[in-house]
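Handout, section 4.2: multi-component inputs.
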Amino acid sequence: MEENIPDNQGGARHSRSNCELSQLSQLAELPVDTLKELARICRPLRFQTGQIVAHEGERPDFIGFVHSGILRMQKTLEDGRQHIVGLLVEGDMFGRVFDGPLNVSVESVADAEVCAMQRAPFESLLLRSPELDRVVLLNILDELDRARDWMIILAKPKVKERLAGFLMVLCSRFAGVDHILRAGSGTIDVKIPISRTDLAHLLGSRPESISRAFHALADGGSIAIKKPDLIEIQDMDALCVVAGDEDAGNHPTMEHLLEFLHGRDD
Amino acid sequence: MEENIPDNQGGARHSRSNCELSQLSQLAELPVDTLKELARICRPLRFQTGQIVAHEGERPDFIGFVHSGILRMQKTLEDGRQHIVGLLVEGDMFGRVFDGPLNVSVESVADAEVCAMQRAPFESLLLRSPELDRVVLLNILDELDRARDWMIILAKPKVKERLAGFLMVLCSRFAGVDHILRAGSGTIDVKIPISRTDLAHLLGSRPESISRAFHALADGGSIAIKKPDLIEIQDMDALCVVAGDEDAGNHPTMEHLLEFLHGRDD
DNA sequence: CGGTATTTTGAGTATCGTCAAGGCCAGTGG
DNA sequence: CCACTGGCCTTGACGATACTCAAAATACCG
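Output:
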């Protein structure tokens, strides 16, 4: 039960009759006829904060493309506790093409729109469209990279380092996602999308330690805590140093980010 | 330079004129003509312990299928330190199909045989063979799962828990790999394939703490240290409890493993 | 058998998890 | 409009754990 595409009874709301697939940058370059076929088999779904999109162990009848909002992937441990293994944002895909049940649950962290592609026709289209297949493949490869980046961050011995790494990820990979980053005057405001408790699960720590780590970073001068979930980044380079610089020289500079954000805000 | 398939000058040795592709269980089910095409574009390579198979940031001209031995994937941090993000064993694939440069280095931990598929013809074959495409897709999805499992393990607060989780992974996912597991009398001997230092990097700790964690597990009675790199597992259930049981009720039992190993040894 | 690298042990310090209490904010109801 | 309530974040104190540095013991290799 409940393995089908969620309907109104299930809690999700159909927002429009079809998705605006071309807004997803990865799909935009697909051939027109492929896009048309995609549009035919996809259903837009809306989820409110806290709703379950897919359950671990089930095999939903759809493959999801996140259109807006933020979802979190989590695994349920034996003792019932949930452990976050990643966040999904605009443009991300979830669901196991050609494969068995999910091994993560997906839950909306903020109000989210998801394009649900019916599994069977999507897989069949995948076989006929090499371009779509390629997009899906690259998407998964991308997610693999993200998981590896998380591994590097999680392997840091100190909470402060892991938290700094997390903030760097928000500034790089999540930079394009609306409502997360906002340009200030020579600084950048970061809206932390999840609670301290969730952040603690994600970083393998406790809420108290996360809180202390935030304030330790603030005392160091690299960030300021405007509100508990609104962080102002004052010194990106210092943050990189604390984070231990996961990817050698691959981090965004403050100037580059500000430029990017000002471009987006106009 | 050195972005091509390693040749004899580069250190890797061609072992035979063609790979025994059918030995790789995932490929065995492919259509015969696809296998033939694969055989034509693949080169067997041999690597000795410590050899670099592929450099981070490069885009090797081949996609690798591990035939035997163990390789490790690692990222180079800014300070030059290397951080292990995963191990590759028999049946695993590496190299980014249809995509840019690698973002991990691959290095052989033990003498290894790798089937190197020339990139261009492999990608072209991928477009023509849906079955091969599916195999590749599932392989990457699998690796994504493994990365997520690592995240769960890495997020454990105590080193002892992470180490127990690592041992459980060796007993489940690496069970089929030769020379890692060996059946004892009601116990299982595990050959730790990497040094304490590497293990420390993998688990986000230090060699000293890893050593202490090993001995703490031994004092608890769940394992015995026969040699520094040869661990006898005496109580798998106890080990699961210490590990915190990542995947609810998904761990192998001692009996099941012993049965499996005895079947293999005959 | 000697030399080197790896592993182990020890002592001291820093960090983190735990428990408990207090503060901040939003929503509710008088 | 204000007091109350509940959830989340913060702070403090204390014990447990892990990191650091240094040295000893062991294993490995020729």
